[in-house]
Amino acid sequence: MGEGKCTFGTRMPIDIHMLNEIIYREVKHFRNYKIYRPNFGSMPVAGKFYAAHDQLKAESKEQTEKVENYTKNVSQTRSKGPHSKYPSAATENQEYGWYYKPLIAMDRNDKRFYHPKKESKHTKIEIIILSSNPKSRAKS
Q1: Would you put residue 22 in left (φ > 0), alpha (ψ -120 to 50) or beta?
Q2: What pLDDT, in 10s, does the model give residues 54-112?
Q3: Are 77 and 40 spatial neighbours (Cβ–Cβ below 8 Å)?
Q4: In sequence order, what are the residues at sequence separation of 6 or more whose Cβ sits closer than 8 angstroms to the Cβ of residue 5?
Q5: How far is the C-alpha of 38 from the C-alpha of 31, rounded, in Å?
Q6: With contact defined as beta carbons under 8 Å apart, do 70 and 40 qualify?
Q7: Is residue 53 within 8 Å of residue 36, measured between CB atoms?
Q8: Could you give the C-alpha distances from 19 to 10, 13, 22, 28, in angstroms and in order?
Q9: How many CB atoms lie within 10 A of CB 94?
Q10: Alpha carbon distance 135, 125 (integer Å)
Q11: How many helices (H) does the chain have, and how many strands (E)?
């Protein structure tokens, strides 16, 4: 009689060891911090009037110095670019502008590497249009 019975909707018995292992694996990556350490690299969207670190009430000289040091550290960190933070490009998009100096110094007299386009059909037409404009002739 138990073989033909429908088991849809019945639960398997809970294995407490498996449940403890799942909880252990999830919790082992959490850390609780007691001290607030600001992340100078991130930009806040807006200040929070209720946050303790955004309050600028300075009752003593030590607290005013702390606030000044904090703002100085924030401004220094934000003024630095990614070149000062990373030894090489950290993302794919940074690679495009990371090396801004050419590998070989360009000699403009060497005709093998330097081929400037002196005139084209488009620039000739633009010069004709600009020279025939009566407003531009009146200014010069």
Answers
A1: alpha
A2: 665 556 888 888 888 988 988 888 888 888 888 888 888 888 888 888 777 888 888 88
A3: yes
A4: none
A5: 16
A6: no
A7: yes
A8: 19, 11, 5, 14
A9: 13
A10: 18
A11: 6, 0
